[in-house]
Amino acid sequence: MEKNKRKGDKLKGMEYWKKWCGQAVTRKEEFLGPTTSLQGDNKIVMASEPSTSSAVSNVETESVVSPAPCFMPTTTESKFSQEPTSSSTSSPVTSSLRSAKLDVGFYATEDNIEDEYLKAQILKEPWTPPKDYKFPVSTKRNLRFQMKWMERFPWLAYSEYKSGAYCRICVVMRRSLDEGKRGHQRVGQLVTDPFYKWKNALEVFETLAKSGYHKRNSELTDNFLKIMSSQAVSVDQQLSSERKRQQEENRKKLIPIVKGIIFCGKQGIPLRGKTDSGRIHITPEPEQPLQNEGNFRALLRYAAESGDKNLSEHLVTSQKNALFTSPQIQNEIIDICGKIIQHKIINEVKEANFFAILADETTDIARMEQVSLCLRYIDLKDAKQHKVKEMFLEYIPTVDVTGSGLANLIITALKKHGLECSHVVGQGYDGAAAMSGYLHGAQAYIRHDCPLALYVHCSAHSLNLTIADSCSQADVRNCVGIIQSVGSYFRHSAQRTAVLKEKIRDLLPADHQKSLLAMCETRWVHKHEAVIRFKEIYPAIVHALEELQSSHNKETSQQAVQILKTLRSSNFVMCLVILQKVMSYTLSLSKQLQAINTDIITAFSHVDNVINALQLLRHKVDEEYPHVYEEAKVLLEENGGILLMPRIIGRQLNRSNIPVSDIFTYYKINLFIPFLDHTIQQLIERFTKHRKVISALSGVLPSNFAAGCEIKEAFRMYSAVLPEKSISVIKAELEVWKAAMIFTSPIPKSALECLDNCDQKLYPNIYTLLQILATLPVSTATPERTFSSLRRLKNYLRNTTSENRLNGLALMNIHYGIEIDPNEVVDIFKKKIRRLIL
User: Fold this and answer.
1) Could you read off the pLDDT of 491-517 as tens digits, one per residue?
2) Are 445 and 400 in contact (CB under 8 A)?
3) Looking at the structure, do residues 53 and 116 belong to the same domain, yes or no?
């Protein structure tokens, strides 16, 4: 019934608007003549213009759906009565439409009027019948609406559309159709239905005026009009201000919690303890934790007790389910912090355009295979000082360690972070077959999706393999094994370590080294340093073993006797001195190859320098070897030994057995020269593949201008990403670049130095090739370093750490210098529904 009634009201409203539009068209023709026509949206359009609909159809289709737009007031008239024309006198057409718009009866069946300015117009200046208006007669007694009633009851309004009376404030301020008797009775006459029973009109008007419903609407009207006149603050604004105040207070409570998590994450401190739930009790309350609650909760308690009133109030007064200190909340905030860091890194990578992949894998404490993914790119923030960055991105757990499995893992991670595979210009891994295999290694599969991703074998790993292969000679291999055994012997016991430190202090007071170094498998520099350190403190080691021979501990004394005899052997001392001599050359190279700012051409120039130095040493072997021999002889004699030549037999399989007449010549021919030759040969062979990689790009460096390197190969490889597609234009640009570098002082040597001197606008192709050259990976030292963080973060006490939490903590700890704004963390944190307004 009600639905049919509303439908009838709609149809009646359409007829009503047709009548007004018809009057408007008639008056328009009288006013403008027959050459114009009225179209929708109150526009006057010349008849020559094409029109798609009549005035009636336009009004019928538009105005019934929503009221016509209201017009803002001017300073010359009432705030809510401005007409839609700039002239002081409205046209008949506009006046007719406006009067229909302000007929209160038209809005009686609407649930709500959304246009606040229209509300104000109806309340202030509704349509009022003119003085000569003839009201319709309703009964046989000729009763009709009286104009004087509107003077007695100011809220009363007459609707020509509905031919009845309304209370306009109840119509406009009504919130729903069920408003009477505290929302339990449906409103009717004077509100949703027109009143036309004029016999009892005054009684009905008086009854409505005294009703609580009408009085409430009157108060709402007064407040509404004051707000529209900017004389008061709306309830919405008041609520908004209160919400903002509450939001600021809640953020002040949450910010210290976020800061505490960031602090623990950056310092690598474990957050959780034995108990992680419940309220954090603040002194002087009698309840104190009986068990260790962990660093995070202890840090919050310390901050609250040290004067953070907002945090203290939050921890004391907040409900237990709104403390935001639980492990689940910690995980969310840690994950957000990690994603903020990742987002900053990804933005830099996208700005750099080109990047290289660095990856390595290891097994964590939980026996889970973890792939450390890092990215190498050029930081372009300072055009005059380019920097190479190698940034850890995430740990990725994996079960499939085949070449295809690892390749899919890396490609999926890149796509997840929104990185384009077409911008990958390099990939660096170790020499494992799963990573470096030519046909089925990860690098081969990745090149299917990333055609420009040139594979570069880790240079530091290549050097490590060079030393390892050089040490495969029996005497040298045994020497390295003994060095490792001696280190393990002293580290096994605090007593033995104390004796060694005492001897170092007594015999070598000027030496700041107090202990032996382990020959770490992943820290390649330590292998070089371990051999050099052993040679330096050799006298202290021998004297410590002499003292430990008389120890009451049977195991200690027995092992001391065995090790001391080995250390005083001629073979060991000669190998130790020779190793120390050669590794003094490769130590600086090992450090240089692991430097992030080193580009691949600069790194290989250092390799060439070391090779040249070792070849010079080999060429001058007759001059250099006597010094090596004399040093070994003195070292051995000063520590209770004597240099002897091993026994020579007719057939020897396990060591060199070249027949010689004296001990000097024996160690020269059988040990020094073979070890030196093997090292040089391994350096040349291991780095030959790297030279093929850089040969195509070396022509853009000033140091290679004289060699006449061609740029055709570089153009063939990278034509897809070069700004210019013509080889002749690129050759001409290279010639101009060469001419410019001649007058540059000092002449740049590395790719980074060239980038600092290369104007991207003048030399766009050269700049791109230099950027690619500087981006090519040199070593995988950065992924190797992240394994140290992995062992610190995921240890035997934290071996169940989830992957998201692990990555968040690792990103905060490894990228210590990347700032995390706690407010940004809260802004992301509040996107999910929370118990507090944030």
Assistant:
1) 888 999 999 999 988 888 776 667 787
2) no
3) no
